[in-house]
Amino acid sequence: MFRFVTSRLLQSLLALFLVITATFFMIRFVPGGPFTAEKAVTPEILRNLEAHYGLDQPLWRQYLDYLGSLAQGDLGPSFKYPNRTVNEIIADKLPVSAELGALALALALFLGITLGTFAAVRRNTWVDYTASTFGMAGISIPTFVVGPLLVLAFAIHLGWFNASGWYGPTDRVLPVVVLGIAYAAPISRLTRGGMLEVLHQDFIRTARAKGASEFRIITRHALRGGLLPVVSYLGPAAAGILTGSFVIETIFQIPGIGREFVNSAFNRDYTLVLGTVILYAVLIMALNLVVDIVQAWMNPKVRLEA
Amino acid sequence: MRLLPPRSLRRLAVRGAAALLVAAGLAGCLQRETNVQRGDREQVLHRGMGADPSDLDPHLAVNIAEADLASALFEGLVAEDPQDLRPVPGVATRWEISPDQLTYTFHLRPEAKWSDGRPVTAQDFVEGWRRMLTPTLGAENAGLLYVLQGGEAFHKGANRDFGAVGVSAVDAATLRVRLEHPTPHFLSLLTHPAWLPVSLPAVAAHGDPFARGNAWTRPGRLVGNGPFRLTEWAPNRRIVVEKSPTYWDAARVRLNAIHFHPIDNPDAEERAFRSGQLHLTYVLPYGKIEAYRQNSPELLRTDPYLNTYFFRLNVRQAPLNNERVRRALALAVDRTAIVEKILRGGQRPAFSLTPPGLPGYTPPAGSGTDPDAARALLAEAGFPGGRGLPPLELLFNTSGNHRLIAEAVQEMWRRELGVEVRLTNQEFKVVLSERRAGRYQMMLSDWVGDYLDATTFLDLWRSDSGNNHTGWTNPKYDALLFAAARTADPVARASQLREAEQLMLESAPIIPVYHNTHVFLVQPSVRGWHRTLLDHHPYKHVWLEK
Predict the structure, then answer these.
(1) CA-nearest residue of chain A to B35?
(2) Which of A147, A197, A200, B137 is the most exposed place for a label (fewest CB within 10 A)?
């Protein structure tokens, strides 16, 4: 176990370094720069700006400087927001996305696992068909359709919620529901598939023969194996959902980090692009590691090997 | 095969339904009065402001929303009349202009105060302008201060002594300004945020006041002298300003607060308006104009705006180095069809670059639309019926109606002239980068005027302009603008400017397409929100009334 974790950490570190290097150079080779604007600044102003941010140095030098400050946890100043640092922006916006993501993930797990289990248990009945319809609809109807529809119904016609913004607790409801449903749909499909496979295995028949109640069979015996596909899906899904969704954050104008992934690239805000990419990469790697450990615990067939 | 007893199934279903009902009930209880209802009661204006501002530093303000915020937090020597934006006394109560129009003496009102209680002095303007012109700040609009005597030399580093720049504090209440040349629109120019004063000690308390990256504009730190003071700045959430008790004219300020909501998606903004969150939107999605015109015309505003859309033609390359080809293309664009069939937001067909409505300036009539003359010109150029002319490329960026306009014009040129045009769609900064490098043939562009004078458009085509990008230069054009800048008589000056614009339009390095409007939504309770060409709305004259 210890060897497994250390070896995975080392691999992750190497992967992270490659991601940082590739991103650093790729964003620099995109046409346009942070100070490219409709109204051209004079060459004198541009030179001053570049000197202020060290962009007048050779690229390799900037790269080494960046790695140097990164090692000290400093992600640098933002180009787009001259009085904020990337650390500040992430510290300000990540908690918002994480809160939205955590709530949505909880809703998605509750809805998805419940529906998926019911569908598997009552296979080929109306319960199954309803759950499967929900699953297919949730996967195929994009959030940018569901979101505005819910806003139309609950914010504009019923007046229960704000149409956009992130001010009070009620502002969480609509985005959490939209994002939750989007993730609940694949979870319900995966749960149904996993459960169907498990429910036909011998140990379930044994449990039933022992006289265990059906409720106990499902929750104690079947779910543990049936949820394995969901768990492997959850690693990348949780990284994605916690770092925010560009679409949801745009529809509901949520001040999260998700929008910065896209906008920072449009703004050529080099340091913010790198900051968000590093954040996402670290989360993906960490969560995948967690998933592997959880899977080994859930499934005796899986062994952690370095 | 029944695995689960129906009872537990039902129990679960009942519990889920109960939970949903409780949630819905809670939401129902929390149904409260909207922002607009409460705002109307408490004189709090809620407005959409487009994308989140980069900074609240007035000297770094580059877009309209940033300038708008600066106008709430700061006040310059002159302010703007809320109806026609004519310069009216601001921090200065009166001013004298020397007969040669080169020296302005401003007399500051003694009761003007910063939000920390310190009086606003002439020195604060000197410091503000010095900061603006200091190269290390890298202020994008520093060029506006080149009208100051010696301003350009100081900014470009030719002279490092600010004492040589034409601004000085005679005493605490008197500011003397020397200009490089007579500038009849100087007072209008002064309403631009680049000319705002800053309280240098308040800036210096948080870092180098002459460099970027100074975080003095956070709430609790920002010291302004405007009708409002900053109380909250939560990025991407909202910016709140409250009526400033230290403002000299606070008795006349009727709004208690303004909440600026940064909403960068026009559809989300329109939904927020409909749910009662906003008094005013920043824009309206084009697709919704017709619906509002039909159903709620009282909420829709299409105000004239100092913004012209045009094509830039790269005159450095064949075949667009041929003036006849360029003029033929210009004559074949049916602007009326574009305005009436595609845009439908009250825009006007453009045959000149400068929009109508500028005080003291009537733009030239331009060449109009004449497909027959266009075909004749193209034949004269050696491409009868478009034969022999290689396909042209039209570059545009993804935004608003750009694709629709590009496709319409592509079809007009094909139909009227037999000219093939390929459309190239790129992301905004890629387009700008191609433009700077001169790697394009034709591109869709627009320009928003900074102040109420034709030079805000005509300066673009001077040979030393950084915004020209067409490769077109003409010594006579430069000479006319140079002479106009040194002409004190406004009528003679206007005729020089008109002659210059006529000259440029005849050579057609650009093809004007339409004069834009500002389309937005406004609640009927918003008062004092006049139609102004620059979309400026001095907040001290705005109030809410049912």
Answers:
(1) A162
(2) A200
